[in-house]
Amino acid sequence: MARYIGKRLIYMVITLALIATFTFFLMKILPGSPIASASKLSPEQRAVVEARYGLNEPLPVQYFDYMFGLLKGDLGISINQFKGANVTDLILSRMGPSAQIGFQGMILGTIIGVLLGMVAALRQNTWIDYSSTLIAIIGISIPSFVFATLLQYWLGVKLEWFPVALWKDGFMSSVLPSIALAMFPLATAARFIRTEMIEVLSSDYITLAKAKGSSGFEVAFKHAFRNALIPLVTVLGPMAVGILTGSLVVEQVFAIPGIGEQFVKSIMVNDFSIIMGTTIFFSVFLIVVILIVDILYGIIDPRIRLSGGKN
Amino acid sequence: MKKILQVKDLELSFNTFNGEVKAIRGVNFDLYKGETLAIVGESGSGKSVTTKSIMRLLPEQSAVFKNGEILFDGRDLTKLSDKEMQKIRGKDISMIFQDPMTSLNPTMPIGRQITEPILKHQKISKSEAKKVAIDLLRLVGMPKPELRMKQYPHQFSGGQRQRIVIAISLACNPQILIADEPTTALDVTIQAQILELMKDLQKKIDTSIIFITHDLGVVANVADRVAVMYGGKIVEIGTVDEIFYNPQHPYTWGLLSSMPSLDTAESKLYAIPGTPPDLLAPPKGDAFALRSEYALQIDMEQNPPFFKVSDTHQAATWLLHPDAPRVEPPLSVIERMKKFPGSRYYEGGAV
C-alpha cells in the first residue's frame, strides 16, 4: 500500500507540472494582459509596471521563473485585483468559507441522499420510493440559486431562523448556503444508491443472507450497503471537489466571500497570478481526492485492492 | 419413517404485468427424516419455486400462496410471520444455491459469513462461533481453515466456494437442507467431489435433503426418492429405482430417453418435442399432453389424478387408468423396465 501511494504521489507531481505548464501557456495565448485595461498609463509607466511583475521578460524566462517559484510553494503576487498581495494568502483566506459551506453541504447531502436511496430501494414501487424519486429529480433539475433564493425567502425573511445573507454570524450564516449546496449531492446519492441497492438486493448472496435467517434490516445494512457504495464513491469524489472549491452562484446569492467569486473576478480582470494559483490549487485538490477515492475503492471492495499492496 | 416435512396441495402464483403466472399448481409430497428427495424437471417446471416457497424466499410483492400448506414441526410455514420464519431459516431449514460464484458476499470475509447464522441462532460467543466455523470448514474439506477465515470469496475457487456455502448451510445442524442445483455451475470433477461431500455429510449429521436438479445422472447418484415435476405439478414420484427402471408417466419416459447413455447404440440423442406450457394460461388437462405422442383424448380435457403403482410409487397419467389402452413405452425405456422386478417387461435378473 505504501509503495502504491508513493508511486501515485510521483505521478501526481508530474500531473501538476503538466497542468501548470498548460495553464501558463494558455494564459499567454489569450489576448489581453493584466494591465491592458489601465489605458491611462503612459508607455513609461507601463514599462515600469511590466518590469515589476516580470512581464517584459521573454516567455521562456517567465515560464521558468514561475515554475521555479512554484517549486518553492510561491504562487506569486496579485497583479491588479489585490495589488501586491500574496496569492497563496489570498486563496487560503478565501478558501475558509467556501470549504466550510461545501463540506457541510456535502455531508448533509450525502447522508440524507444515501438514506433516501436505501429506503426507496427497500420499499421499491411504493409511495416512499416515488417521493424519494421526486425529491431526487427536483434536486437535480432545479438550479441551486432557485433553492438559495427560496431558502432565503422562507427560512431567512419569513421565519427569520437564519441570516438571509453575508458572512457575519459564523455557523448560522453557513446553514442556508450549505442546504442549497446539499441538494445536488443529495439527489445524486439518492439515485445512485437506489439503483445500485435494487441491483444488489436481487443478487444471490442477498438471498443466501436471508436464507441464514437475517432480517430485512440486517440484509440491507450488513450485506447490501457496502456492495452498493462503489458507484457512489466514484461520482461523489469529483463532486466534492467542485463543491468544496466554491460554488460561484451560491456564494453570490448569499454574498459569501468565497474562492469561487474571487476566481471569476480574477479571470475578468486578467489577474494572471490569481488565475494560475487558483487553477493549481484546484488541481491539487482534485488529484488528492482521486487518490483518496482509489484508496476507498480498495477499502470498500476487497476485489479491487490496489496492486503493490501486501496480499 | 418419520415425516419431517409435508407439502399439501400447494398452489402458488406470481402476479406479473401480464397476469397471474400459476407457477405451482397443486404439489404434494412428504419428506422423511434422513432421506434425500430429488426433484427433477426442466426449466420452468416449478422445482426451484417449490423449494423457495418452503423457505419463503420468493419476492413477497409478487409471489402469492393460493392454497395448501407446508407443514414443518406441526406448523404451517405459509402462515408464519416474518419473524418466526427468520428463526427457522438457517437453523432448521437451510439452503445451498446454484452458483457458488455469486452466492457469497464479495465484500465480507468468509469467516464472518459462516459465523453469521451461528451467532444468530445459537447463544454462543464470537470466539466460540469462530471455532465452530473453523471446524465446519475442516468438515467440508477446506485445507488450513484458520488462515482462510479472514479471506474474501474472490480468493477461492468455484468448488471451494461451494464448500463454504455448504459449511454455512450446515452451521446450525439443520433438519432439512435444500440444495438448489448445487453442482450445475461446477465442472464435472468438482461436481463429483461436491456430491461425495454432501452424501458423506448427510450420514454424519443425519439431515434430510431436498435436491433439485435437471441432471438425471446426479439423481441416480444421490437420491433415495425422486419427484418428477412438469408444468407446476409433480407428475410422478417414487423411489430412485422405480423412477429409473419402472417409469409410468410419458414425461418421465421422455426425460429418461433424452439422457445420453453409453449402452445404447443409437447415434442420435432423443429430445422431447415442443416447449413447456405457458403457465399464464395452463392447459386444462394434462399439461404434458400437447407434447406427448401417448396423449389420450381425456388428457386434453381432464387433469389426471395420481394412480398408485406401488406403495412408494405414484404417477399422474391417464395411461394407468384401468380403461386406458395399453401403450408401449419407448424402446430405451422398455430396456430399462426389463431389469425391474414387478414391471410388465421384467425378464429376470436384478437392477
Please outline the helices and strands.
The complex is a heterodimer of chains A (311) and B (351).
Chain A: H1 2-29, H2 43-52, H3 59-71, H4 87-122, H5 127-141, H6 144-158, H7 171-201, H8 204-211, H9 216-228, H10 230-244, H11 248-253, H12 259-268, H13 272-300
Chain B: E1 3-16, E2 19-32, E3 36-40, H1 47-55, E4 63-72, E5 75-76, H2 82-88, E6 93-96, H3 110-121, H4 126-139, H5 145-148, H6 158-170, E7 176-180, H7 188-205, E8 208-213, H8 216-222, E9 225-230, E10 233-239, H9 240-245, H10 250-257, H11 297-301, E11 307-310, E12 313-315, H12 331-337
Parallel strand pairs in B: 3-8, 3-9, 6-7, 7-8
Antiparallel strand pairs in B: 1-2, 1-4, 4-5, 9-10, 10-12, 11-12
Keywords (chain A): Cell membrane, Membrane, Transmembrane, Transmembrane helix, Transport
Protein name (chain A): Oligopeptide transport system permease protein
Domain ABC transmembrane type-1 (chain A): 95-297
Structure, explained:
Chain A: This is Oligopeptide transport system permease protein. Chain A: It comes from Planococcus koreensis. Chain A: Its main location: membrane. The complex is a heterodimer of chains A (311) and B (351). Chain A has 311 residues and is mostly helical. Chain A contains 13 helices and no strands. Chain A has helices spanning 2-29, 43-52, 59-71, 87-122, 127-141, 144-158, 171-201, 204-211, 216-228, 230-244, 248-253, 259-268, 272-300. Chain A is flat and about 85 Å long. With 351 residues, chain B is of the alpha/beta class. Chain B has two domains: 1-92 and 172-351, Rossmann fold, CATH 3.40.50.300; 104-171, no CATH class. In chain B, 31% of the residues lie in helices and 23% in strands. Chain B contains twelve helices and twelve strands. An eight-stranded mixed sheet of chain B has the order 6-7-8-3-9-10-12-11, with helices on both faces. In chain B, strands 2-1-4-5 form a four-stranded antiparallel sheet, covered by helices on one side. In chain B, strand 7 (176-180), helix 7 (188-205) and strand 8 form a beta-alpha-beta unit. The two termini of chain B are 24 Å apart. The model of chain B has no long low-confidence stretch (mean pLDDT 88). The A-B interface holds A 124-125, 203-205, 207-216, 222-223, 226-227, 300-303 and B 55, 57, 61, 82-83, 86-91, 94-95, 97-99, 102-108, 116-117, 120-121, 152, 154, 165, 168-169.
